[in-house]
Amino acid sequence: MAYELYYWDGIQGRGEFVRLALEEAGADYIDITRQPGRGTGAMFDIMKSDSEPHIPFAPPFLKDGDLIVPHVANILFYLGPKLGLAPKDEGLRHVVNGLQLTVTDFVAEVHDTHHPIDMSLFYEDQKQEAKARSAAFIRDRIPKFLGYFERVLRQNPKGPNHLVGDALTYVDLSLFQVIEGLSYAFPRAMTNRKAAYPAQLALHDAVARRPNIARYLASPRRLAFNEEGIFRHYPELDSAG
């Protein structure tokens, strides 16, 4: 039975971290809201259900048969062993999960660069505050998070090709997506900073070359970044840092 992924149609967003794992593994899955006749209505049918015993708070969530698994890190923790994208060692699986949760924190801060006050307001209604938040994010938070991931790669006992162990895990794919998204949202800032993170750039490039990922990136299934998702490019928010 195919996995069912529920996320907003038209954006990569948080759902993309799950898609990358499914695509890398060649898993059979259905992107439900992108199916003709389904759309986001199918997603809200589950979220607003008054009979489903385990309703998710928000997308993305994954259905595997009758089981509903919400939250990106939780979904990937569930899928990782099934897709061959998690260490065999149980302890290391929790290390990978911890790194994925750190990615989750980072992505939340990325979102707050363009919506620093109120998620219900348009970006244009909080532009000045977004400029201040983005300047601080570029100055302080990008180097804090990317500096941490660079250290993790450099200090991996199995070598710097992966964040954990000597084989690809789902958090490697997630870090690839973070680098992709930051490069889209803050191209000037990232151009000036990339040289400080050689291990992450090498990992990013290696992931992009993986056959299944390369095919996915070239396919219509890979939605383009846009100003409706998590990673948004507003030139006025980008700076050399």
Features:
alpha+beta; 9 helices; four-stranded mixed beta sheet
Quick structural overview:
This protein is α+β, with helices and mostly antiparallel strands. It has helices at 15-25, 39-47, 72-83, 90-114, 127-154, 170-185, 187-193, 198-209, 211-217; strands at 3-6, 29-31, 61-64, 67-70. It has a four-stranded mixed β-sheet, sandwiched between helices.
Please tell me about this protein's structure:
This protein is of the alpha+beta class and 241 residues long. It is 53% helix and 6% strand. It contains nine helices and four strands, in the order E-H-E-H-E-E-H-H-H-H-H-H-H. It has helices spanning 15-25, 39-47, 72-83, 90-114, 127-154, 170-185, 187-193, 198-209, 211-217; strands at 3-6, 29-31, 61-64, 67-70. It has a four-stranded mixed β-sheet with strand order 2-1-3-4, with helices on both faces. Strand 3 and strand 4 form a beta hairpin. The longest helix is centred in the middle third of the chain and has 28 residues, at 127-154. The mean pLDDT is 96.
Total of DSSP H or I helical runs spanning 4+ residues: 9
Structural class: alpha+beta
Order of helices and strands: EHEHEEHHHHHHH
What Rg do the Cα atoms give? 18 Å
Q: In percent terms, what proportion of residues is strand?
A: 5-15%
Write the SSE topology:
Blueprint: E1 3-6, H1 15-25, E2 29-31, H2 39-47, E3 61-64, E4 67-70, H3 72-83, H4 90-114, H5 127-154, H6 170-185, H7 187-193, H8 198-209, H9 211-217
Parallel strand pairs: 1-2
Antiparallel strand pairs: 1-3, 3-4
